[in-house]
Amino acid sequence: MQTALNPQSTPRAIPSTPSQQQRDTAGSPAGQNLAHYQIIRRNGAVVPFEPNKIAIAMMKAFLAVHGTQGAASASVRETVDTLTQGVIRALVRSRPGGGTFHIEDVQDQVELGLMRGGHHEIARAYVLYRERRTQERSKQGEQEVPAAPALHVLDKGELVALDLNELKSLIESACEGLGDSITAAPIVAETMRNLYDGVPLDEVYKASILAARTLIEKDPDYTFATARLLLHTIFKEIIGREVLPAERATAYADYFPQFIKKGVDNDLLDEKLLQYDLPRLGAALKPERDNQFDYLGLQTLYDRYFLHVRKTRIELPQAFFMRVAMGLSLNEIDREARAIEFYEVLSSFDFMSSTPTLFNAGTLRSQLSSCYLTTVPDDLDGIYESIKENALLSKFAGGLGNDWTRVRALGSHIKGTNGESQGVVPFLKVVNDTAVAVNQGGKRKGAVCTYLETWHLDIEEFLELRKNTGDDRRRTHDMNTANWIPDLFMRRVMEKGTWTLFSPSNVPDLHDLFGAEFEKAYVAYEEKAARGEIKPSRTIQATDLWRKMLTMLFETGHPWITFKDACNVRSPQQHAGVVHSSNLCTEITLNTSDTETAVCNLGSVNLLQHLKDGKVDQEKLKKTVSTAMRMLDNVIDINYYAVKKARDSNLRHRPVGLGLMGFQDALYELRIPYASQEAVQFADESMEAICYHAYWASTELAKERGKYSSYKGSLWDKGVLPIDSLDLLEKQRGGYVEVDRSATLDWDALRSKIKADGMRNSNCVAIAPTATISNIIGVDASIEPCFGNLSVKSNLSGEFTVINHYLVRDLKRLGLWDDVMVMDLKHFDGSLRPIDRVPQDVKALYATAFEIETTWLVEAAARRQKWIDQAQSLNIYMAGASGKKLDDTYKLAWLRGLKTTYYLRTQSATHAEKSTVQSGRLNAVSSGNGEATSSSGMSALEAAAAAAKAQMSAIPATDIAFCGVDDPTCEACQ
Fold first, then answer.
1. 444 lies in some domain
2. What region, left, alpha or beta, does residue 933 occupy, with left being phi > 0 and alpha being psi -120 to 50 degrees?
3. Number of domains the chain contains
4. Is 583 one of the annotated active-site residues of the chain?
5. Considering the entire predicted model, what is its pTM?
6. Which end of the chain has less neighbouring CB within 10 Å, N or C?
C-alpha cells in the first residue's frame, strides 16, 4: 500500500505498537519466512516486505477517524497490532513458499482485515483515501501500471528471457473450450503486471493463477481456467516437468505405480497397495476428469488432501481418488474391479466419501470415521476416563458427541466424601479445554458437542455456557452444546404447564427411558418431589425454561434444539439400547452405553449428478447408492479404532450415514425456488429415492455378507421401516405429529426383501453438513440454501470468490450480466432482492438463505425426516428474528417430527464477506462519488474519514461461525 510503504508521510503522533517495538521481521506470524517476501510498487520496483508499514498505515486510518488522542490508547495500539498480524497471515497464506505481493493486493487485505474486524468506519475512510490518492496520481500523470520492459526469469538457477509466447499459449490452453467470454488476454495482462525482472519461473506460474482468479467475479467460468493453470503447476511439481494436456493420459499411467511405491517407501501408504495390479489401475485413470474441478475445489485438495513428502506433493487428482478407492477395496475378493468401481463414483463427483476417509484411506493409519458418540457415567473414574476417551478420539480427527445427563447436579450429596457435588459444569470446562489442548497444532479445535436432558437440575447453567459474560470458569467458549429435549417437556410448553428439575443421582432411570415409560416415571418423581421426598429439585414454568432456551440460542447460537423421543421412538435399534445424544453436527442418532461408543462413517451423494428429464434419475441413483453403501460398509472393517468400545460397537451394529449434497443446485437445474411447495415435494421425492436405494443396498449386502449382529429384534426385523415409525411416534406422543405420509416407491417390495435377507447395517442414512467435500466438487453444501449469489469463502489457502454460475447463465440470457450487476451484487451481499431490473421469477429462484422463510426449511426437512433412519444437520436461517418467530419455528420442527436441529442463524448476527473489485477496493465499502475534496488543513485521510462518517449506516454484526458453511478448517464430519 502506498501509504503503508511511505514512511516519510507518517505523522509524528503515531508511535510504534508495543509488539512492533519488540518484533522484527523474523518474529512476525510467518516467522523467518517473511524474508522470502517482496513488494512490487506501482512503478515496478521490487522492495523488501516490511510488515511494520502495514501497522503504520492502519494507525493513520484509526487516528484520522478517532483523532490523534487515539495514539495514546493501548487498546487502539493492540487492535492495530492484531489487525496487522491478520493481514500478514492472509498474505502469507496466499503464497506459502514466499513470493511477491503487488502493493494493491496488500491494500486489499488491509481493507478486508478492517471489515472483518468490525471497523467499518475505518475501512470506509481507508477506501475513500485510496480513491483520492488514485485520482491525485492520475492528475499528476503518475503511471499506475507502466509498460513492462523486457523481462528475465530465473529458471533452475539460470537467468533467461521470459518466453511470452509460451506463457500466452499456456493461458490460452487453460481457457480453451470454456466459451467465448473466457479469454486469455486479461489473464496475460494481469500476470505481466505482477512480474519483475529476475522473477523465478515458478512465480510466473503463480502470478498467472492469481491473475485468473481475479476474473472469477466477472464470469464464473474463469474458475475453471484458474483450476487448469493450478493443475499445470501441480503436474510440474509432481511429475517434474511440463506435461501438456494431450500427454496426461500417458503421464498418469506411467506415474501411478511409481506414486504408490513412493508412498509406501516414505511410510505414507499401506504396503498392501503394492499387491494390486498397478498398471491396470493406472490405465483406468481418467485424466480428462481433472477438468471438472473449479479453482476452490482443486486448491482445497492440493492444500489439505494430497499426500506429500517433506512438503512436496506426490499425489495427482486422479491418483488421489484411486488411492482412496484402493484403500476401501483392501478386503474385496476382486480388489482391482472394486477399486475401479469406487474410483468411478468418486472421480465423476457422483459420490464423495467424508474427509477422514479421503485423508486416510490406504494410509498406514486408516482412521476413516467421522463421528463418535459417548455417554459419561456419574463417578470420578468414569468421568475422567470419558475425557481421556475424548482426547484419544479427537487426536485422530473424530467429531464427538458427549451425553452428560447422568452426572449429578450442583448440591447433590456425594456418599464417598459426605460432601456436595459441584455439578456438571466444572467438568464441561475440562472437556472444553481438553478439546483445545489435544488439537493444538492440528487442523481444528473444539470438535465436541455436549448434550444435557432438559430435566437436569443444572440445565439453566448449561444454557449459559457459551455466554461471553459471567464467571469464565463456568464458560465453555470452544465447545458446542445441545439440549436433549423429551416430548413431555414440549407438551408442557404447549399446554403451559410446570416442569420439575432433578439431579440424575435421585432419578437414575430417567436417563434410559423415553416415550410413555419416561412420562410415567417422571410424573411419579414429580409427585415425590412435591411431597419433599426428593431433594434437591426445583419446579418452574415450562414456558419460562423454553423461553430461556430460545433466548440463549438467539444470543449465542447454543445450545441447539434436539428431540430425545423422536430419536429413540423411531430408532431401528431401540431393542439394543438407548440414543442418549446426537453427535457434533446433530445428524447421527446411535445408541451409547458404558460398553459401547457409537461410531458412524459418512459419505454423500451429489444430487445434481442424478437428474434426468426434470426429475431424479432412479437408475443411476440406484447404481451410485449401491456402490456408496458398499464403500461405507467396507470402512467399518478397514477402520482404525482408537478406543476398543468404538470398535466393538461398530462391528456389532455396522451403522453408516449416507447423505446428500447439491440440493440447492438440483433446484436451480429444475428451476424450482427453494421457498415453494414444489421444493418441499422435491425434497420428499429425492430423499425417498435415496433412502429406498440405500436400504435396498443394505439388504443386498446382508444377502452377500450376512446380517449385522444385533439385527434380531430391531424395527427392521419387525418389518417397521422409518416411514412406519412415524405412527409409533404419534402414538407415544398422543398426537402432536403432523407429517405428510405420501410415498411414490414400492415400499412393500422392500419390506419383503428385508424380511428375506435382513439388513447389513443397523442405520443407513444421515445428512451431514458436507462443508468441505461440497467445495471439492463445486456444489452447495448438503441441504443448505444458497448463502449468497456472490460471496467470498475463506480457507487455509486464502479467500475465494464464489459466484452463482446458474444465476450468471440466466442473467446473460436476459442481457443483464454486466459490471453494474457485479457491483450491485457485491453491494447487496449477493442478494437480488433490491435490484429493480431483475425479474421477480429470477429473484424467487435465486433467493438467498435469509430471504427464505424458515417455514420452508422446516417443511422440506420434515419431508426428508420421514424417510431417514437417523437425522439431518438442519441449520435454521431467520431474518428479522423475534421471540414469536423463534417459538413458532421450533414448535413447528417438533410437530413435524424432526429429530434434531443445528445452528440458528439470524440476520442480525451475520455479515456476508464481500469480494473485491478489480481496482482492489473492498466492495463492501462505498467509495463515494469521488467529488469530495479535502478541507483546508485536513489530510487526505482525514477528509476521507469525515466522508466515511457521513456515509455511515447500520453496521452488520459479525458471523456466528458454524460447522459446514463458515468453518473450513473443521473436518469433524465432512
1. no
2. beta
3. 3
4. yes
5. 0.82
6. N
